[in-house]
């Protein structure tokens, strides 16, 4: 996406990439395909904006966090498929950490609840178990090559910055999602590296999210035909927080994508949660202290709507609003879309998708409405936990593809009992990366410039007479039935 000084989209392009499910609970991506699609959409977006690479002030990168890539420093090629954040293959490893009493110390250092969601166990698995993409390669194995410094690890931001600039870096927000990074010291943690047998030699340099010193520059003879500075990277949820201008403590946003992720800025204090939330780095600007956030991670929201299309209940996501409005309620049906386990505040990697309350009279419209309610109720789960840790959320900024559905936004406001605020630019994840990049090169002077750009499309006030809030307690009963289902 290409943005102008007013924060408006002047050019964009979009490309899907394939999801691979080689075994139950496994999710993989082809990092080469992601790079090739990146090249294609950059060219298409520039064409749509009617500008050249040399017209760009700076580049910012934002990415799905935790997805783990291991690649060869010499060839620049991945040594195995990327393991996606949703992947559950290391659940047993995480359970061993819990059994060994390691969880409290991991939470204290990293701010994270030990889970297969994060990068540490994914990287450990790659080093020990990966079948190389080039299986006939002779010589040392994956671990030996990593220890020798021949391989590089990164989340997708690192992979893309490497391909753009040749530099091996990440930012503090993505580092804080690896379960290898001390969020208080802002450094890789030696004890955790030892726990997961990760050699220092594979790790990227950790930099501020918005970096005046630049991560690197693009090759003038390459993709953009110019040496454009790459000056920012943020994990997608932190980027959305930044794009929503939630710069001060107490400001919160929820992004509805494949999953939903609610972040509340806690300022320069890393607040520890007693209610199943994560403590994470929100952002850091050059020369400044980091800002922190509490986060509630819901693994499946938009992916639940995608499932509705996969199984033929709807033809496209836009159809869900019409179908949900066609009935007064889900008629007693509750859907817990725990396809890859439950995230905050439940943290059950063995939970699985569950539908309860169906009768012979249940139709697809009831299932569709129950799916949208599930999205709203999972967010309420997180808001309740956040209120217990840091005080009540007075309003909620929302963004992501799903917020185009006004029925969902109305449902969310009613479920929470607080206003839900939708911005004009709902792609705030990309906007946050652009803001961070532009600040680093002086394209925008300060945070006040960004606040001046923030425009509200619509505010959804809660209806005190809505019945949806009364269904929440039964929703929690349905969640209990979903827990612990997957025995292996």
Automatic annotation (TrEMBL):
<keyword id="KW-0808">Transferase</keyword>
<dbReference type="InterPro" id="IPR005999">
    <property type="entry name" value="Glycerol_kin"/>
</dbReference>
<feature type="binding site">
    <location>
        <position position="405"/>
    </location>
    <ligand>
        <name>ADP</name>
    </ligand>
</feature>
<keyword id="KW-0418">Kinase</keyword>
<dbReference type="GO" id="GO:0004370">
    <property type="term" value="F:glycerol kinase activity"/>
</dbReference>
<comment type="function">
    <text>Key enzyme in the regulation of glycerol uptake and metabolism. Catalyzes the phosphorylation of glycerol to yield sn-glycerol 3-phosphate.</text>
</comment>
<feature type="domain" description="Carbohydrate kinase FGGY C-terminal">
    <location>
        <begin position="253"/>
        <end position="440"/>
    </location>
</feature>
<feature type="binding site">
    <location>
        <position position="302"/>
    </location>
    <ligand>
        <name>ATP</name>
    </ligand>
</feature>
<feature type="binding site">
    <location>
        <position position="236"/>
    </location>
    <ligand>
        <name>glycerol</name>
    </ligand>
</feature>
<feature type="binding site">
    <location>
        <position position="258"/>
    </location>
    <ligand>
        <name>ADP</name>
    </ligand>
</feature>
<keyword id="KW-0319">Glycerol metabolism</keyword>
<protein>
    <recommendedName>
        <fullName>Glycerol kinase</fullName>
        <ecNumber>2.7.1.30</ecNumber>
    </recommendedName>
</protein>
<feature type="domain" description="Carbohydrate kinase FGGY N-terminal">
    <location>
        <begin position="2"/>
        <end position="243"/>
    </location>
</feature>
<dbReference type="GO" id="GO:0005524">
    <property type="term" value="F:ATP binding"/>
</dbReference>
<dbReference type="InterPro" id="IPR043129">
    <property type="entry name" value="ATPase_NBD"/>
</dbReference>
<dbReference type="Pfam" id="PF00370">
    <property type="entry name" value="FGGY_N"/>
</dbReference>
<dbReference type="InterPro" id="IPR018484">
    <property type="entry name" value="FGGY_N"/>
</dbReference>
<keyword id="KW-0067">ATP-binding</keyword>
<feature type="binding site">
    <location>
        <position position="401"/>
    </location>
    <ligand>
        <name>ATP</name>
    </ligand>
</feature>
<dbReference type="Pfam" id="PF02782">
    <property type="entry name" value="FGGY_C"/>
</dbReference>
<feature type="binding site">
    <location>
        <position position="258"/>
    </location>
    <ligand>
        <name>ATP</name>
    </ligand>
</feature>
<feature type="binding site">
    <location>
        <position position="237"/>
    </location>
    <ligand>
        <name>glycerol</name>
    </ligand>
</feature>
<feature type="binding site">
    <location>
        <position position="302"/>
    </location>
    <ligand>
        <name>ADP</name>
    </ligand>
</feature>
<comment type="similarity">
    <text>Belongs to the FGGY kinase family.</text>
</comment>
<comment type="pathway">
    <text>Polyol metabolism; glycerol degradation via glycerol kinase pathway; sn-glycerol 3-phosphate from glycerol: step 1/1.</text>
</comment>
<feature type="binding site">
    <location>
        <position position="65"/>
    </location>
    <ligand>
        <name>glycerol</name>
    </ligand>
</feature>
<feature type="binding site">
    <location>
        <position position="65"/>
    </location>
    <ligand>
        <name>sn-glycerol 3-phosphate</name>
    </ligand>
</feature>
<feature type="binding site">
    <location>
        <position position="117"/>
    </location>
    <ligand>
        <name>glycerol</name>
    </ligand>
</feature>
<feature type="binding site">
    <location>
        <position position="401"/>
    </location>
    <ligand>
        <name>ADP</name>
    </ligand>
</feature>
<dbReference type="GO" id="GO:0019563">
    <property type="term" value="P:glycerol catabolic process"/>
</dbReference>
<dbReference type="GO" id="GO:0006072">
    <property type="term" value="P:glycerol-3-phosphate metabolic process"/>
</dbReference>
<dbReference type="InterPro" id="IPR000577">
    <property type="entry name" value="Carb_kinase_FGGY"/>
</dbReference>
<dbReference type="InterPro" id="IPR018485">
    <property type="entry name" value="FGGY_C"/>
</dbReference>
<keyword id="KW-0547">Nucleotide-binding</keyword>
<feature type="binding site">
    <location>
        <position position="66"/>
    </location>
    <ligand>
        <name>glycerol</name>
    </ligand>
</feature>
<feature type="binding site">
    <location>
        <position position="117"/>
    </location>
    <ligand>
        <name>sn-glycerol 3-phosphate</name>
    </ligand>
</feature>
<dbReference type="GO" id="GO:0005829">
    <property type="term" value="C:cytosol"/>
</dbReference>
<feature type="binding site">
    <location>
        <position position="66"/>
    </location>
    <ligand>
        <name>sn-glycerol 3-phosphate</name>
    </ligand>
</feature>
<feature type="binding site">
    <location>
        <position position="236"/>
    </location>
    <ligand>
        <name>sn-glycerol 3-phosphate</name>
    </ligand>
</feature>
<dbReference type="InterPro" id="IPR018483">
    <property type="entry name" value="Carb_kinase_FGGY_CS"/>
</dbReference>
